[in-house]
Specification:
The complex is a heterodimer of chains A (about 250) and B (about 650). Chain A folds into 2 domains: about 5-110, Ubiquitin-like (UB roll) (Roll), CATH 3.10.20.30; about 115-245, Fumarate Reductase Iron-sulfur Protein, Chain B, domain 2. The longest helix of chain A is centred in the C-terminal third of the chain and has 18 residues, at about 230-245. With about 250 residues, chain A is α+β, with helices and mostly antiparallel strands. Chain A has helices spanning about 35-45, 115-125, 145-155, 165, 175-185, 195-205, 220, 230-245; strands at about 5-10, 20-25, 70, 75, 95-100, 110, 115. The two termini of chain B are about 40 Å apart. Chain B is an alpha+beta fold. A 5-stranded parallel β-sheet of chain B has the order 5-2-1-9-17. In chain B, strands 11-15-14-12-13 form a 5-stranded antiparallel β-sheet. Among the domains of chain B are: about 265-400, Flavocytochrome C3, Chain A, domain 1; about 495-605, Up-down Bundle (Methane Monooxygenase Hydroxylase, Chain G, domain 1). Chain B contains 17 helices and 19 strands. The relative contact order of chain B is 0.16. In chain B, a hairpin with an 8-residue loop joins strand 18 (about 605-610) and strand 19 (about 620-625). Helices cover about 35% and strands about 15% of the residues of chain B. The chains are: A alpha+beta (about 250), B alpha+beta (about 650). The interface between A and B is large, with 78 and 81 residues.
Chain lengths: ~250, ~650
């Protein structure tokens, strides 16, 4: 197959970037999108053009490293990560525009590589249960209904890729944050810190420059882990309850 | 040089308890004074960094990924073993220990494996306390499934994403400690050398992958938690960035590399489809709980639609050869059987390199919804990659490199032969012998990080009061200069081919000669080919751009350069181990039925290799394997 690529090239974080055009030739239909870029890079190296820098690691859809906006959609069409997109889903001869994930809180480092450490800082603000290794009771001591465990797992499935924030017109990270708040808030082990957690994580999210949710649901549409937007409502309720507690001077 | 494994005295069941009772403690006031370097943030690294920080040590943690949450432990699918016996099916610490020793074909160290089985139960408690959503039954209790090499159900899981959930648990703990200021995290930072001062590991050299800046960090101990070297095969189920650099650089600074030829070829992966391919994708072994593996009995049927081949013309070869374990035979045996039937010309799919994994019986028995609940994401993944629907047509699978049992040599304390250098998780060699059982990698990574190193590190640190070294020491300057020179050397070749060109060829050599079947003749040939390829690499590599800022070609080239040396060591080890055991199958040594034939009399030892300088043959140091509890037996899964 053959494709016309328009690829975002940017030397450094501060340098201006622009779309460069390349032709991708002799691409097998079975190749993944990233393998197509590998082939292009090796062709570029042969022509003395610096290869396109892009992030990827596990290449099986779970690590959340790959982060390309393809024809305007984070991770491209279909519902998976960039690495799980295959060239047979494109038309021969098609023009494909490739950009990094776009969000103020994800500055571009070079070409298609962004800095998503904002997500790590949001987790550091409260996305954990403060337990101590060695002090845990027997794992079966607290039964957890299958329904709750399954729902917690639906939320915990988030891979932290950032497509939600990149897809949102407000660059909101609320799907990401609500997934963690829901996962931990549902489980009995996470209950003691529930209010503190949601307050701290939401504050950090604002601090990082992510916007608010205004119900576009673009996040849900691109989420490779299928995290539902209904968790955002859940988080808002938890946040309101915790804020009221804080306002009336109750300790959280 | 003799190797001290430092196994504590006493009966096997008492060793760890005795050890803990007598281990040296570091007081809280002193813990604050020690600074620890943890390289890697997977299950072993994240759990160690978080736990040691929680205890009061100052920790610096490094990873090459852009976030510690992305370490490759995240991709483990099937589960984690623990001897909880929640199913009341006869499991015990002893059985998990014995299964692991037997699964490893009697080439692992008894005391380490017993300890692993012992702490396995604590891991599950710890993970549940962290909020890891392990699968549950309707009554609210934890669910289990079975895995290869075991006749009990002791595997805990979180859908097909167990590694992800366990890693996110450890990452949450790590994040908590980062927030408290007790861990300083360095993402996108790759370790390029170890600094040894007066025989002790005192620091590392790292390259900031964003800026290209190379710096040194000093610490009171260095913990390598950098995973395995499966990517020496180029195509493997490992992540693209997985590499041998950290452990290999430590080897070049004097750490011994143990059993490099022990690699695991996982039986259930999606077959290779072309030479553009950048990685292989695993389909969890848990699928073998419900899927049946078969190929046509006759070559002529291989091109037919699988559904059109009647039952009597199918060869369910694992069920036929190993009736009591059937499709759950251990990984090495399952992989080799798949290779055998494909070598006979009975493989299916492109190139005849594939066998069927068929769910039609299970779907009939349990209904599609149950199968979907158990393995939904795996079926989805398979559909995505191959464009086929495995609910309707059997999956095609073929073995692929997945895990490496070899690694840096460590004693019972998880300390290498260089004092202060500790090695955890897949990066060490200690627990899986010549073959790892499914769902045991997660167990080992977390055991080492949560429950072993926090107890054993004190024994070393208490010898280091007043022996702090800072990075102005000449050894640091030397290591820094060495690393800078090496990067410059790579950049200055200015040849014609990108690193991947050499890398792909290396992978083919290793796969052909040091893969599922190995021979003395082939291994010798491989060593010659690798040496020639290495020479070509150092004269014809092309890296464009500069060494400042992000340059992934440079990162890649550095890793490939190390694989080009390491691959030779691996072939040498395979050549010297003139027996078959577990994943190491020497065609010269097999039973009449084609099973691995061990030679306990001459090879019941750990091969630890010592670097003797470039161009020189490394020297072999043997650690004899002494079995007090277990009687060596021929593995039988019939």
């Amino acid at each position: 197959m053959k494709f016309h690529l328009k690829v975002w090239r940017q030397k450094t974080c501060k340098a201006p970037g622009k779309l460069e055009e390349y032709v991708a030739e002799n691409i097998p239909a079975e190749a993944s999108f990233l393998e197509m870029l590998d082939i292009v890079n090796s062709q570029l190296t042969g022509k003395n053009i610096e290869p396109i820098q892009f992030d990827s690691d596990c290449r099986e859809g779970i690590c959340g490293t790959c982060s390309l906006t393809i024809n305007g959609i984070p991770h491209g069409k279909g519902r998976g990560t960039t690495c799980q997109l295959y060239m047979r889903n494109f038309k021969d001869g098609e023009t494909i525009t490739i950009e990094p994930f776009r969000a103020d809180a994800f500055p571009v480092q070079r070409d298609l590589v962004t800095n998503r450490s904002a997500f790590d800082r949001v987790i550091q603000a409260g996305g954990y249960i403060s337990e101590r290794c060695g002090s845990a009771p027997d794992a079966n001591a607290v039964p957890i209904s299958k329904v709750i465990a399954d729902q917690a797992m639906d939320a915990a499935a988030c891979i932290g890729c950032g497509a939600c924030a990149a897809a949102c017109p407000n660059s909101s990270a609320m799907l990401f944050v609500s997934a963690k708040v829901t996962h931990l808030g549902l489980l009995p082990q996470g209950k003691p810190e529930k209010s503190r957690r949601v307050l701290n994580m939401v504050h950090q999210m604002d601090e990082e420059g992510f916007g608010n949710c205004s119900n576009y649901y673009a996040c849900e549409a691109v989420c490779p882990a299928g995290v539902p937007a209904s968790f955002i409502g859940r988080m808002n309720r938890e946040f309101t309850a915790a804020s009221v507690k804080e306002m009336v001077g109750m300790s959280v | 040089m003799t190797l001290e494994s430092n196994i504590p005295d006493g009966p096997l069941e008492q060793k760890w308890t005795n050890y803990k009772n007598n281990a040296k403690l570091v007081s809280p006031a002193n813990k604050r004074k020690f600074e620890l370097i943890v390289v890697g943030s997977g299950l072993a690294g994240a759990s160690a960094a978080a736990t040691l920080a929680e205890q009061g040590y100052k920790v610096k943690c490094f990873c090459y990924q852009d976030s510690p949450r992305r370490a490759h432990s995240i991709a483990a699918q099937g589960g984690i073993n623990a001897a909880k016996n929640y199913q009341n099916d006869g499991d015990s610490v002893y059985r998990l220990f014995y299964d692991t020793i037997k699964g490893g074909d009697f080439r692992a160290r008894e005391a380490n494996v017993y300890r692993l089985a012992e702490v396995s139960t604590d891991i599950i408690d710890q993970c549940v306390a962290q909020g890891v959503p392990l699968a549950r039954e309707y009554g609210g209790l934890l669910a289990n499934r079975s895995f290869g090499g075991a006749q009990v159900s002791r595997t805990f899981y979180a859908r097909g994403q167990t590694g992800q959930q366990l890693l996110l648990g450890a990452y949450a703990g790590l994040s908590h400690q980062i927030a408290l200021g007790s861990v300083k995290m360095f993402p996108r930072t790759e370790m390029l050398d170890l600094v040894v001062v007066d025989g002790h590991a005192k620091g590392i050299v790292v390259r900031d992958l964003n800026t290209g800046e190379i710096t040194t960090h000093a610490g009171d101990a260095v913990l390598l938690c950098t995973g395995g070297y499966g990517n020496v095969f180029y195509l493997s189920t490992n992540a693209r960035g997985c590499n041998v650099t950290a452990t290999f650089r430590a080897y070049k600074r004097g750490a011994l590399f143990a059993n490099p030829c022990y690699t695991q070829i996982h039986p259930t992966c999606i077959p290779v489809s072309g030479d553009y391919q950048s990685k292989l994708t695993l389909m969890s072994e848990s699928l073998r709980n419900d899927g049946r593996i078969w190929v046509p009995k006759r070559k002529e049927d291989c091109g037919k639609e699988p559904a059109s081949i009647p039952e009597e013309d199918r060869d369910y070869y694992l069920e036929r050869k190993y009736p009591s374990y059937g499709n759950l035979a251990p990984r090495d045996i399952s992989s080799r059987s798949a290779k055998e039937v494909c070598d006979e010309g009975r493989g299916v799919g492109p190139g005849g390199l594939g066998v069927y994994l068929d769910f039609s019986d299970a779907i009939k028995r349990l209904g599609q919804s149950t199968i979907e609940e158990r393995y939904g994401n795996l079926f989805e993944m398979y559909r995505n990659i191959t464009g086929e629907n495995a609910y309707e047509r059997p999956m095609r699978i073929y073995p692929a490199v997945h895990y490496t049992m070899g690694g840096l040599w460590v004693d019972y304390n998880l300390q290498s032969n260089i004092p202060g250098l500790h090695v955890l998780g897949e990066a060490n060699f200690s627990d899986h012998g010549a073959n790892r059982l499914g769902a045991s990698a997660l167990m080992q990574g977390l055991a080492d990080g949560y429950f072993v190193i926090p107890y054993t590190l004190g024994n070393y640190l208490t010898t280091q009061f007043g022996k702090k070294v800072d990075s102005s020491h000449p050894a640091f300057e030397q290591a820094l200069a060495d690393t800078n020179a090496r990067v410059k050397r790579l950049m200055d070749i200015k040849g014609t081919k990108p690193a991947d060109d050499f890398y792909r060829r290396l992978g083919l050599i290793i796969w052909d000669y040091c893969g599922m079947a190995r021979s003395a003749e082939g291994l010798k040939e491989a060593i010659g080919k690798i040496q020639a390829l290495r020479e070509e690499f150092w004269s014809d590599l092309r890296i464009l751009g500069t060494d400042g800022g992000i340059n992934m070609e440079l990162e890649r080239a550095g890793r490939v350069a190390d694989f080009l040396e390491f691959g030779e060591l691996m072939c040498l080890d395979a050549l010297v181990r003139d027996e078959s055991c577990g994943g190491h199958f020497r065609v010269e040594h097999q039973t009449p039925e084609g099973e691995a034939l061990r030679n306990d009399e001459n090879f019941s030892f750990v091969s630890a290799w010592k670097y003797e300088g470039d161009g020189n043959m490394p020297s072999l140091i043997k650690e004899p394997l002494v079995y007090e509890k277990v009687k060596l037996a021929t593995r039988s899964y019939k």
